[in-house]
Amino acid sequence: MTLHRERALSAFGLMVTLVLSLVTFSSSSLAQDNSQGRYRPEGRQIGLAAGREFDERVYEVRTYQPDVSSDAFAGAMVFYPLTLSFDLPNGAIAFVPGFRANAAMYEWWGPALASLGYTVFILETNSPTDALAARADALIAAVDFIKSENQNPDAPIVNKIDPDKIAIMGHSMGGGASLAAAAELGNNIGAVVPLALYCCEPGESFSGDYSNISAPALVIASAVDEVAPPADHAKLVYDSIGSAKIYLELAEGDHMFVTNSGEEKSTLGRYVLAFLKDNLDGRNHLASITESDAEISRFLQD
Questions:
Q1: % of the chain with per-residue pLDDT over 70
Q2: In this structure, what are the phi and psi dihedrals at residue 250, rounded to the nearest 5 degrees?
Q3: Full-prediction pTM beyond 0.70?
Q4: Are 149 and 171 found together in one domain?
Q5: For 7-16, what is each residue's pLDDT tens digit?
Q6: How many domains does the structure of the chain reveal?
């Protein structure tokens, strides 16, 4: 009886070890995500590369489309890491598009961020021409929606999200909206990442003050952005932020460099993942990469 029990325990231990190895060892063909056709593969490759560089666990990625009843946004594309039943909850990201853009234009961000453990909600705005204030409201509502979806027994992410590890992101007018939302959300979020931000409502100039933002901020811009020149938008707004903050300016890339068509996705994903891991999960990855990229024309940290 004892011998049989010892053999059974040994077999069980071997099975658990094998399961963990398949989940964490990304270079094994058995551990690759097999959901081809569900998302853009370049995002997955960016996540895998960051996982190897930062020595972070890499997850398979799945997608689903939740039922949304919010008045603030119309829907969401959700990308989530495939975790084990005994894994601790991970962080989550809400992303709002820019003016006249839709969620599908930013699809690569889903698998890139979810590969390193984040559940990503790319929002569909009520209208492509929603103003900055409406996009900020969408992000604020999305934070509550993420928490409610985490409690939804019918959702594949039920109890998989740590509500203390939520970040918000946005592009262009959505980037400006992410800072406006961060000022309202306070300690309800752990980080904010505005991308190629357009500071204000169309035609207006920035005269505000974001000294009350408490979440760490990563502001990313392009030096040659003609739609939202950094001097009038990203850098100007960055100087008003009161929280711990980083300003990252790429040497090249038009205003759409953060979308699926952008040519610097690997650099973007690498820095954003390092920033999120540092500020949501207590890592120190940014320190190892801030001096190594020729694509970066300017890097400031306050």
A1: 86
A2: -80, 150
A3: yes
A4: yes
A5: 443 443 433 3
A6: 2
